Automatic annotation (TrEMBL):
CDD domains in the record: MDR_like_2
Protein name from the UniProt record: Alcohol dehydrogenase
Transmembrane segments: none
Name of one Pfam family that matches: ADH_N
Domain Enoyl reductase (ER): 10-319
Stored Gene3D superfamilies: Medium-chain alcohol dehydrogenases, catalytic domain (3.90.180.10), NAD(P)-binding Rossmann-like Domain (3.40.50.720)
Keywords: NADP
Highest taxon above the source species: Bacteria
PANTHER family, per database record: QUINONE OXIDOREDUCTASE (PTHR44154)
Organism: Paraburkholderia phytofirmans OLGA172
Length: 321
């Protein structure tokens, strides 16, 4: 089968277009013919050597959409999708014609999404769902402030929150485009600057947000804490620009804030499958929408796909097989 592989860490130039042995299903696994696989910023970081646990040589890629071609009879020909924090890191990933995954990782793809769209859901929507639903237990009628709402994860949080009946306040450097699903769904917008806390509290009658989903972290961590109401929940998934942070501990415990870290990379492809399955109804009902695909590259041009993500392309980048 055709695949992309890297034997040393570096820029996208280290990616090689190679022929590898065709994987075979066994009693515990199935083989999926990959139709499309997105390229995430974490894939680019993986190739660069950012993650210490990655073993070489390795085929990268976390997200995928495809068709089961080898495995249990009941699954043969089924369109499936998935993601995982193990594939592409400690086991071969999705930037290949075929991928072998555990039977527990099989999850049916929404019929409303193309393979390209479905392949661009996994990383962003799984971490958004994990934080919003599993950890914060966001309820209808609550208010969520999404820091970095214009990004991939932030946009997924906006969609999931609105689908659950919450009020969404986007906190972003720039206004969200009305051409994006997140831009059409937000209830209010607050610029991310020195006046963010005052403006958000004015929108919430002085109380603050029930949930703050901070997709930026680091340099805006203290801002995130300033936006949450008493006994509210703050979710952190990143540490942009500043790994170590300071905050007023007395204000923190007086407010009885709940601080939650969210790391979907800890979930392997099998552990991620239930979350992918939970998303299906939202896409098939129209409550959730697939992302805009900015660029699509054939597998043999995977280096170009990685370079596009590395330079910050707006919209998702996918590799098609």
């Amino acid at each position: 089968m055709r695949a992309i592989q890297f034997k040393t860490f570096g820029n996208p130039e280290v990616l090689e277009y190679v022929d590898l042995p065709t994987p075979q299903a066994d009693a515990d696994s199935a083989v999926v013919q990959v139709k499309a696989a997105s390229v995430n910023p974490s894939d680019v970081k993986n190739v660069s050597g950012h993650f210490e646990h990655t073993t070489l040589p390795r085929t990268p890629g976390r997200d995928f959409s495809g068709v089961v071609v080898d495995g249990p009879q009941a699954w043969l020909g089924t369109e499936v999708w998935g993601t995982g924090g193990d594939i592409g890191f400690t086991r071969d990933g999705t930037h290949a014609d075929l991928i072998k995954i555990p039977l527990a990782a099989l999850s049916r793809k929404p019929t409303t999404l193309s393979h390209a769209e479905a392949s661009a859901i996994g990383v962003n929507f799984v971490v958004a769902w994990l934080g919003t639903v599993e950890y914060a237990n966001l309820q209808a009628g609550e208010t969520v402030a999404v820091i970095g709402a214009g990004g991939g994860v932030g946009g997924a949080v906006v969609q999931i929150a609105k689908a659950r009946g919450a009020r969404v306040i986007a906190v972003n450097r720039h206004p969200l485009s009305a051409d994006t699903p997140a831009g059409r769904l937000i209830d209010d917008y607050v610029p991310l600057d020195e006046h963010t806390a005052g403006r958000l509290r004015a929108l919430t009658g002085g109380a603050g947000a029930d949930v703050v989903y901070d997709t930026v972290g680091g340099v805006v961590f203290e801002t995130a804490l300033s936006l949450v109401k008493r006994r509210g929940r703050v979710l952190e998934i990143s540490g942009t620009g500043k790994r170590r942070v300071e905050f007023d501990l007395i204000d923190f415990y007086h407010n009885e804030t709940q601080l939650l870290g969210v790391d979907s990379a800890k979930l392997g492809v099998a552990e991620s499958a239930p979350l992918m399955a939970a998303l299906v109804e939202g896409f098939e009902s129209g409550k959730l929408q697939g992302p805009a695909i900015a660029q699509a590259f054939p597998l043999e041009r995977a280096r170009e796909a990685y370079e596009a993500v590395a330079t910050g392309t707006h919209g998702r980048v996918v590799i098609t097989m």
